[in-house]
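Supplementary Text 2. Reproducibility record for the structural model of the 276-residue chain.

All settings were left at their defaults, and a single model was retained for analysis rather than an ensemble. We include the record here because the model underlies the residue-level annotations in Supplementary Table 4.
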Amino acid sequence: MNMKKWITAALACSALALAGCGGQSKDASAPAEPGKTYRVAMNAEFAPFESRDSAGKIEGFDIDLMNAMAKAGNFKVEYKHQPWESLFPALKNGDADLVMSGVTITDERKQSMDFTDPYFEITQVVLVPQGKKVASSEDLKKLNKVGVVTGYTGDFSVSKLLGNDNPKIARFETVPLVIKELENGGLDAVVSDSAVIANYVKNNPTKGMDFLTLPDFTIENYGIAARKGDEATVKMLNDALRKVRESGEYDKIHAKYFAEEDKKTAEGKNASEAKK
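Retained model, structure tokens:
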């Protein structure tokens, strides 16, 4: 390239710098694009938050909530079911714009991704055959095999209690798989998210299972994950979530999936207060 052409190209690149010439990244503080379609990755094996119907369509609490947020925030969404372990890499490399899959907000995850405000509160619980007593972490340590889903916060909690490489921990790819192993007698207990386990127990009364809450497990919050530094998208989602809450739509969606659990919680609280 001669000098004249080189100068012309350099000037053109400089003029277009804000538009991304030379690999410039998009300004993270720029407002989100109205009407844009966001690709939402999820592992649809986590009922009632996300699962697939007989036709393969993804459904659940997370889908209804995100659809309501999209309407309130004037954006569109596309859902993609994929393995849990692929969700965060897909977000990082640009194959997905968001991850919404019952993802617990943790300090470790905040280092590599950004989160919206919390949209659901849970804790870890222990699923066991009826009659089996597990009242503390010490009881959990005495069991021969405890099942968890790899990479879930249940996995982190049990690893913290028993040791990450403890042979008593059996790791599975999905919630349905680890529960099936418990049903078949290959495990003594399963540790996973309270709302998911409660949903399983409610819909499978003949399986003879019950779940217990341990004082060792703290409250957790789900959030929607976005790429690190994507402040505009996080702000847009938070604004949309706020609108859905303020309109009462969030409560309607919550009642659709958790009305029975809310009723039991209220009855337990009232009974406890009556004893005082």
